[in-house]
Amino acid sequence: MSFGKEVRAELARVYPGRPCCRAAELAAVFRCEAEAGPGRIGAPAVAVGHAALARKVYQLLRQSGCETGLEIRKGDRRPQRRAYRVEVQAGAERLWPMLEEACGPLEGDGVPQKTCCLRAYLRGAFLCRGSLSSPEKGYHLEFRFEREAVAASVVRALAALGLEGRRTRRRGAHVVYLKDSEQIVEALKEMGARKAIFEMENVRIVKGMRNRVNRLVNSETANVEKTVNAALAQLEAIRIIDEQVGLDSLPLPLRSLARLRLQHPYASLRELGELLTPKVSKSGVSYRMNQLMDRARKLAEAGARRGAPGGI
Ligand SMILES: [Zn+2]
């Protein structure tokens, strides 16, 4: 099951406890899915694409005091898929005023006043027209509507909950989307998709850890390379000094460090400092090592002059 489907399945199981929220969620469903009819208002049925939502609409209508029928048939656009038609058989005269009280005329773009109802309204809209990419693939949550007023109402509901729904048109549809992962998590939280949030947070943590580990490994590798390169340059310097003037010609502090480096080619400066008697700090070792490098450089330059044709 795709992540988006999982979220819809989870949201289909979230039942609002209060009558106000039931009306708000049903209002969203009727705005999205009411069967075409004269003016749409007063359409006696909704057609939805999945069973869990059909079950929920059926239950919500029953809980709101309507007599309800459920019919399963082949999808209009995709006959291999089923469509579920939930019909209000009796009680519509009580239902419409209830829905309109929740968010204004069903043809309009009004939204519920109370936060609890705003959440239910968004949940209804998402169940009908929402999709969500899996968190491994990046973060994208969107709604697609045929009617602009419904898209506008969802943007207003999101805004009332402190979320920024962006709008675009795609193949004739009015699209409302959230791109930012924090906003998506927040929207899922508002709609009541706890399991989905948990899963998203998990993926986010694992991704974060993976990045951190990669960074650590990279910087560690870089450090090791730096240390090895430095040690090789130091060994070369010590070899030059030994060949040209002998290590015994060095003052004691430099001589003991040079000998130690030869014994421990890949020790860090700090480790070399620990091995010296008396112990020397890392910066002290570094200072002496630079002196060794300086001497070697001067000897090498002098050697080059001597070796040059016509030189002294
Ligand atoms: Zn409410």
Plain-language structure description:
- The chain has 312 residues and is of the alpha+beta class.
- The chain has two domains: 3-206, Endonuclease I-creI (Roll); 219-302, no CATH class.
- 59% of the residues lie in helices and 13% in strands.
- The chain has eleven helices and seven strands.
- It has helices at 3-12, 19-33, 51-63, 92-103, 115-129, 148-160, 181-191, 194-244, 252-263, 269-275, 282-307; strands at 45-48, 67-74, 82-90, 130-132, 141-145, 166-170, 173-178.
- The strands form two sheets. A four-stranded antiparallel beta sheet has the order 4-5-7-6. Strands 1-3-2 form a three-stranded antiparallel beta sheet.
- Strand 4 and strand 5 form a beta hairpin.
- Helix 8 packs across helix 11, helix 9 crosses helix 11 (282-307) and helix 10 (269-275) crosses helix 11.
- The longest helix has 51 residues, at 194-244.
- The protein starts with a helix and ends in a 5-residue tail after the last helix.
- The model has no long low-confidence stretch (mean pLDDT 87).
- Zinc ion (ZN) is lined by residues 18, 20-21, 24, 114, 116-117.
Strand content: 5-15%
Assign a percent range to the helix content: 55-70%
Might you state the CATH topology name of the largest domain? Endonuclease I-creI
Regarding quaternary structure, what we see is single chain
Structure class: alpha+beta
Mean pLDDT: 87
Low-confidence spans: pLDDT under 50, at least 5 residues? none
Superfamily at the CATH H level of the largest domain? Answer: Homing endonucleases
CATH class (first level) name of the largest domain: Alpha Beta
Bound molecules: zinc ion
DSSP strand tally: 7
Q: How would you sum up the global shape?
A: rod-shaped
Order of helices and strands: HHEHEEHHEEHEEHHHHH
Largest sheet: 4 strands, antiparallel
Contiguous helical run count = 11
Tell me the number of structural domains. Answer: 2
Task: Specify Rg, calculated over alpha carbons.
Answer: 37 Å
Q: What is the end-to-end distance?
A: 84 Å
